[in-house]
Amino acid sequence: VQVTGKGTPQGGIVSPLLANVYLNELDWWIKQWTEGPKGGPENWSFVRYADDFMILTDGDKGDAEAMKERVEEFLDEELNLRLSKEKSSIRHAQDGLSFLGYDMIADSSTRACKTYVPQEAKEYIRGRIREATEGDTDVSVRRKIRSISSVVRGWANYYKYCFNAGDVFNDVEQLLWHRTTHWLAEKHKCSRKQLIQRKLESKSPIRINEITLFDPTGMSTSRTESPRRHGHPYLCEDGDGKPEPQWKKRYREGHPGPDPYLANEEERPGSEDQSQWARVRDENTCQSTGCDASGRESTVVHHIRHRRSADDDRIGNLVTLCRRCHRKIHQTDQVVTVQHEGMDEPKELT
């Protein structure tokens, strides 16, 4: 399997989109119980995400079984679908249930529902950490750190609102620290004590070669906090508290973008990957200081210094230009002055 920066991965946004389109009929059909005349003393609620849904009621088990039969009949006759026998069941709220990867249990004292990190999810992330930190050490430290961090960060972001997230994240962090320091000690052929004294820039969180291992312990949030993203989704704070482009922070930390793999083999980003980041940095607009066509013409990524080796493919040597300015450089004697974020001063290209 080749890792690429393009394409739609399994589980991409098209899957829930198509499910929403097709199951829209189910949403409308069930409103006759959730919003229309109830036809009985019981109340009904309907929750759906993509092709997973729950129907909640305060009625008895007989009411729930009758509703399950109605839903099965509707899906079969109107949408030609079948309920999954493995995932479909009738449960009492206080007995708990699983939905979208969460364990959910009703709290009789507060009449609320608490979500927990399921045992399967704990075993999954522990297995991924072990898989990433055993075996061959013939991989760059920076790639190993950023890859493990990417996997743990994504997992922690999904479960950070669970009631027991704090305790679970502490356990994960301890395993992550011990396994990573063990791998680094083997990589540098030294003891863990020598690693901490001579190699690490920070012991907790682990920082080495100017890159920091992700620490999930600060991710858990209180139950009173709304599960919404805060701040600008594309900006983060730099050391001075000023907004910094997300792409720049990722590049500065050696992070080429989301990476779900565990870096058990070395892989060098090619020029195409760096060109994509150059376009992101330059917002896909011409960086010529004298250009008035930015955003209106198709763009190309130009090497500031002529390419002589793979080292010239680094993002600092790339700049986005419109095709007209690019032709000026290669086909005429005209001088083009460019500047992109990261350049200390404009440069003249001939």
Give a structural overview.
- The structure is a single chain.
- The chain has helices spanning 14-22, 24-29, 31-34, 61-78, 119-132, 141-159, 165-187, 192-199, 246-252, 271-281, 323-331; strands at residues 44-49, 52-57, 97-99, 102-107, 112-116, 207-208, 211-212, 235-237, 243-245, 299-303, 318-322, 336-338, 347-349.
- With 350 residues, it is an alpha+beta fold.
- The strands form 6 sheets. Strands 3-4-5 form a 3-stranded antiparallel sheet, with no helix packed on it. The protein has a two-stranded antiparallel ribbon with strand order 1-2. A two-stranded antiparallel ribbon has the order 6-7.
- Helix 6 runs antiparallel to helix 7 (165-187).
- The longest helix is centred in the middle third of the chain and has 23 residues, at 165-187.
- The protein is flat, with a radius of gyration of 27 Å.
- Mean pLDDT is 78; it is low at 222-242, 250-261 and 267-271.
